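Known limitations

Files may contain more than one protein. Parsers should not assume a single record per file. Below, a two-record file is shown to illustrate correct handling: read the sequence, read the token line, then continue until end of file.
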Amino acid sequence: MGRIVQKFGGTSVGSVERIQNAAKRIINEVNKGNEVVVVVSAMGKTTDELVGLAAQISKNPSKREMDMLLTTGEQVTIALLTMALHQEGYKAVSLTGWQAGIQTENNYSNARILNIDSERINGLIKDGNIVVVAGFQGLIPETNDIATLGRGGSDTTAVALAAALQADRCDIYTDVTGVYTTDPRAVKTARKIPSISYDEMLEMANLGAGVLHPRAVEFAKNYSIKLEVRSSMSDERGTLVEEEATMEQNLMVRGLAFEGNITKITVTNMPNEINTLSDLFTILASNGINVDIIIQNVMNEEKTNISFSIDSSLLSETQEVLAAHQEKLGFESISHEGSLAKVSIIGSGMISNPGVAAKMFKALSDQGVMIKMVSTSEIKVSTVVKQEDMIKSIETLHDTFELDARVPVQK
């Protein structure tokens, strides 16, 4: 007998029919003799609809009340799925995140899981129940308030539960058959990757690939959770996320990621002092502003310009925070450039293959794409380009690194 955590995303439970289909997949595992814990997202576009309702009430709703509102979406799903399992004659119990013992930090709308008290879930499993848990949510112990884990947080819930429950594996069911070399909606020649390492998947998730939440990959890596991303609509094998990918080791680049709505901020004529960077980014971090690519351009011994990229939705907030601290930071002015996108190549093969970045830059240059910013690590190169050049850049790089090449399919 094994213990399995299954996670079903919003599209996989987007209708009564799909909820019933998910129930059949759960029952299939139970009939194999496995103990099953299920994590679900809100149905379809429920979360977006709830956000829309809030926007009709308030332009700037309280984050606490938004968390109270948004968690209702998952509660609908857990109840309906549990009913579907009852209808098929199986014992099942639904639990909200806080009923499941998920404890988070004190941070509304984007909290991290601190601890999971699995006693209640273990007791329900021992009594022969399938346990259905609401993803995306937990409880702040200090205040007994509900907190959400941010977009994609149901992935994190599933993998964290798999770690806490010492599950044998965690299956992430979604509307695609696995992880692709890039988004197949953007590049028609994109293909499924049979196997990918935790590090590569983490880079892809952080850089815009929406198939898995970055925190979920972190949990999987830290606790060596066997993870498979697969379709809820077919029995086709998915993509294994593991410590070392067992396939395609000859490829320098394994995949591409991209995201739009990027804005470049430049803070000009800051004092060129030892604490300049520390002061600037400490202030931004303390105000919850997430900064991505950073470039420092030293003008002379006394002055420096610092540029960084942010999500465009944070532009107004960032400008307000910087303006409020202008005297302390000592800069002259702030400028920004919007309508940008980030395009990245990812692959562990880059470590042992010099010249990958040069190949990327030349391919983009040949297509007339202007590179605004660059960031690198051992297994990725990210560039910021104009939003209008994003898809052209991805298509070009997909061809350049031959990611549509046929490879053996995993059995």
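...continuing to the second record:
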Amino acid sequence: MSSGTMNTQNTGNITGKLGTWLMIIATAVLAFIMLVEIINILFYDPFSDEHFLFKFAGSLAGVKISTLTYLMFGSLLVALMMGLPLAFVTGGLGVAFVYLVGDSLMLNIIPSRIFPMMTNSDLAAIPLFIFMASMLERAGLIEEMFNVVYKWMGGLGGGLAIATIIASTILAAMVGVIGAAVVTMGIIALPAMLKRGYDHKIALGSIMAGGTLGILIPPSILAILYAVVAQQSVGELYLGSVIPGILLSSLYVFYVGFRSWLNPKLGPPVPEEERIGFKDKMLLLKDLIAPLILVFLVLGLLFGGVATPVEAAGIGSFGAILVAMKHKVFSIATLRDASVTTAKASAMVLWIMFGASVFVGFYILQGGQDFITESILGIGLSPYGVLLLLMVLLVILGMFLDWVGILLLAVPIFIPIVEALQFPGLWGFPPVPGEDVVLWFGVLYLVNMQMSFLSPPFGYALFYIRGVCPPEISMGTIFKSSLVFLSIQAFGLFICVLIPGVVTWLPNLVYG
């Protein structure tokens, strides 16, 4: 072994030991501080100046909101950069700042923030939709659906990429969870496209862009959370996101088809001998009957006002079990695996909700909402300039935080800002009615989250696809493949801003 290698190993060992000792010391100091504070709470009057050794309660009581903003969000950024989980960072920092700014009695704000969320019935739809997605994935439905669309579209230029996008759109209307969609379509569709000599950027981009449609198209789980936080109707938000979702999917298909028409080498069609006739194509459609019935049943009951989101999700979960039985894959083991996946995902979402609710709720209580609103509106931008600033901030946040964290940290602060503005329309296009602003902004937010999933360098979809790519495809190629589809998403977002009726027409038609 060379001396250079040994020096590197020694340096690594020293650094590792130093980090371990620093962690031990920090933990001991924190434990000592907590012990002292517990003694203060138990044996000393919280309204007097008497204390044991020292007292941190209320030590930041006189801090201005501007300084508190830097302290709270700076601490959050540092903790996240250290790799600590968001679910516990937000809640832990929220509790710490409640205690430092107030006192032990002020900690009562924590149950008062969490309990209303625990009693919100709409949140029960989240685990049910996650279970529905898990069960359908184990039923092999995704592979079957791609096979049908692939047989129909394979003869076209770019047909496999178009089939991927269409299958992802149908999948988004069934599950509302995006991680599984990107990974599964990557496992199924990517080898088929690479085998046919597809351009890597079109192959990868169509999988990532199609897979992220689950954020926007109902029954999106993110839309349920937004509706809860913004006190918006889930049904209206679902209806508002239907046309933008179909619009984006159509733009992806048009781009792939147009590029493949200009240069057939980018997306060569399936050879003649592998194509099937029209009769065989029609026979294949029977494989889509069960999932499509399930989609129309769930969304139809929801949009028609017959069922609440929780009831529709319950029917969807039961329907997913029936689909699994039809495919002869249902068993106790399958049910257990789907239930465990559901429990893990739901627990993650709820813990982030509780922690972020305490963190943001306390910040707003201290006047943070007014400070942020005055700061942004005081810049002197037009309403659409402020909207653009918020959109850019959401995309930037999406590079570092997951979608639940962004929703719960940013949206409660952004919504009052948007509500305070009037949007008279751009370049002669219709204005946004005041009663539709929160709904309109909600769909813009969902499109933004799609963009954040594709945004280099930390977009989640980029790393989902990396896990299933062959080693010869570099991370640089994955980044480049996302940029064109990111531009298409930005164009779709611009259309929703320019023509608000794209979002508001369907909810107003159904609900009046």
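Parsers that stop after the first record will miss the second one. For reference, the second record is described as follows. The chain has a mean pLDDT of 79.
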